[in-house]
Write a structure and sequence with these properties.
single chain; about 400 residues; 6-stranded antiparallel beta sheet; about 30% helix; globular; disordered N terminus
């Protein structure tokens, strides 16, 4: 994958969020000023009819399936639409597994913040101290906190070998290819910093490859083991996992992921890409389900996983601009940062602040968001046939039905 394409895959979720933010009034930077109860007195009862309507025609949005789960104090609703497997016509599974892409970052940040709480790592300490040969020689010092909130200024990585033209056909032919975190970091050699660390924010998957390596260096154990022992097992997330990069399987999927591949005669074929390498690892390689993601975010926002000092990091967005130079541009309203240590802050309507994360892999577009007090939670997973992911309008319709937002 070229640098351009890795930026698209590793950070495709940010474009979704930028569009949502652009519709509303961006909250100021820094700690969330609204605190608990950011949705006024709390969400009203769920509008089941609006939720059903929001996914009534998935094929019209270029999707083969949709899974939506809404919860909180105002009630619970789960719905599915489309076809679980276009080849067999089986139904969609509301509790099935899917590839969560960059939602994996929230798990990674949680573990690293736990290590900070245990004084095993200093958020203000440098990456170079723990991983002295991971970054290019002469790169400015980068702190652990700057990795987590994407203010490191590091250049984006690229797949060894390159060749990805961004097409569905290319991915279908290379879905099982995989690379190690070190190979991704090696691709930074000879590339300058994008900006001085701490002076701007740029969403960059390289930050979380480094975060995963930090976890392994500090603990002496695998990233998968740390996530499992610290988060998955304590919360009973039995259907969430960190697969090995060579493991292309996806047991009990919510739906098969398929991409539309153009034929020479002008038609298209649907290629099943459910089996693919989860090589993005701590950056974007995890697998989960809608019930598990709801439980995870509710526990995280509720303080079950972090003590107060580290919990505050989840809701602290640096007061810096988005980087407007080469590479990814989140494009948020006012050009200001919207990412904290692991989470993304959205303000799609006055008085409403949401915290969570989006995620994408070829064949999937997913998200998990909630009000800060978890009075309303939303998880969705779509299977788009375009490698560009699910269209913004399809995602906004679901968010609007879940949080009572105005129609487009």
């Amino acid at each position: 994958m070229s640098t351009r394409m890795m930026g698209r895959e590793l950070a495709g979720t940010a474009a979704i969020s930028a569009l949502v933010v652009a519709l509303g009034e961006a909250a100021p930077s820094g700690a969330d000023p609204s605190g608990p109860g950011a949705f006024g007195a709390g969400p009203t009862g769920l509008d089941a009819a609006a939720l059903r309507a929001s996914i009534a025609d998935p094929s019209g949005a270029g999707l083969t399936s949709a899974v939506v789960r809404v919860g909180g104090t105002g009630g619970h609703w789960t719905g599915t639409a489309g076809t679980g497997d276009p080849a067999t016509g089986r139904p969609v599974r509301a509790d099935g597994r899917f590839r969560i892409g960059s939602i994996s970052k929230v798990f990674t940040a949680t573990v690293l913040l736990q290590l900070a709480a245990e004084r095993r790592i200093d958020l203000d300490g440098t990456v170079q101290r723990h991983l002295p040969v991971a970054l290019p020689v002469g790169h400015p010092p980068v702190t652990v906190r700057q990795l987590l909130n994407h203010t490191s200024g590091l250049p984006g990585g690229s797949e060894p070998g390159g060749g990805d033209d961004g097409s569905a056909a290319w991915f279908v032919a290379h879905a099982a290819d995989h690379w190690t975190p070190q190979q991704v970091l090696d691709s930074l050699a000879g590339r300058p910093a994008q900006f001085a660390p701490g002076t701007a924010q740029q969403y960059n998957g390289v930050n979380y490859f480094l975060a995963g390596l930090l976890i392994e260096r500090v603990t002496g154990r695998s990233f998968a083991r740390e996530v499992t022992d610290r988060v998955l097992r304590p919360l009973g997330l039995h259907r969430t996992s960190v697969p090995d990069a060579a493991d292309t399987s996806l047991p009990d999927p919510s739906a098969h992921a398929v991409l539309a591949v153009p034929r020479p005669d002008g038609g298209t074929d649907l290629a099943d890409v459910t089996r693919q390498s989860p090589w993005p690892w701590a950056e974007g390689g995890m697998v989960s389900t809608a019930p598990d993601l709801e439980r995870f975010l509710t526990a995280l926002l509720g303080g079950r996983l972090l003590p107060p000092a580290q919990q505050a990091e989840l809701f602290t967005v640096p007061d810096v601009p988005n980087f407007r130079g080469p590479g990814l541009d989140l494009g948020t309203t006012g050009g200001r940062a919207c990412l904290s240590a692991g989470l993304m802050r959205l303000s799609p309507a006055p008085g409403l602040v949401l915290w969570g994360k989006t995620g994408s892999r070829p064949g999937w577009t997913s998200a998990v968001f909630a009000t800060r007090d978890a009075a309303r939670t939303l998880v969705y997973s779509f299977t788009p046939t375009s490698r560009r992911g699910a269209p913004f309008t399809a995602q906004y319709r679901v968010a609007a039905a879940a949080f009572g937002l105005p129609a487009l």
